Amino acid sequence: MSHWALPHPAHYTPSMPRQQDQELVSPRDHKVRVHRHWPDSLLDGTGPAPFFLVDTWRPSDNAGHLASCTPETCRRWVEAALAYATAVDEVSAELTAAHQGAGSVPRWRYFAARRALHDWEKARERYEQTVREAGEAYQPICREIWHAVWAEHDRAGLRAREEAQEKQEDARVEAQARRRATELAERPIWGWSVVTRKKWSIAYVFRHDVPHSDERVSAARQDRPCVNLPELRQALRDLNPDRLHWDDAALAETGRELDGASFGRCWRELFGEDHGTFTSISPYSPPTRRPTDRDNPSGGSATSGTGGYGSGFSCGSFGGGY
């Protein structure tokens, strides 16, 4: 074989520094990130097998694959990667030097050229043998890492499916709640009565199908029309009372029919406003004096059950939190 027939190895970049730069590798939340790395192949048909560079996992890093491991397992993975990279780097450097030596001997130096070619052949044999043996020694670690990677993929897939199922269930519950709220809004079961004295008016809102819990609800409630929620809302807007009181029993029964969702949330989803304040209505300026019991035939104060004043509508009972 003449030096003119020598193969031309590709440029080789050592792999070991890439793993050594990550020498402070340790699991974070019992996970590391592994990157599959292919060392440069110097001979056609004979090249090093890929191995895994091991790095500390960082939430902002999406490169490579996540793998769960203990600190001891992480140490074994890093040591195996360093041993494999060291063996491949050293024999690759030896092969590159032998190639350069064989190619640099002039043809007229016959014996020197023969020795250089002999050294090249030996270096190539050692390269092929070392690459094969290093790959066989690293293979169990490679399989172990692949197993950990796929196990983590399976867990991530399971978590994604569970999250998707939870979102679907939340969407189903929300759609069901909206449907119940819409059905409730269409039922003509609501009524109101208004007490007016001088400058003050208070509207008591109740359900015709629920016994009222507040004595201030007028006995004339049976004479009031039965309306649905949109009609009730329009009627209250037209009345524009100074105070608004929702019957506690009516709100409690409505919350039960809505599977625990508050009436305030139902109203807000239907009309986009607070059921106790009607914030779209201009606030009412209260008078300078506080009304007395004589001004309020119900026997209590006309402060909608809150014990104080408010501008515009106020609500004595919200029937639970939003």
From TrEMBL:
- The region called Disordered is annotated at 1-26, 278-313
Q: What is this protein called?
A: Uncharacterized protein
Superkingdom of the organism of origin: Bacteria
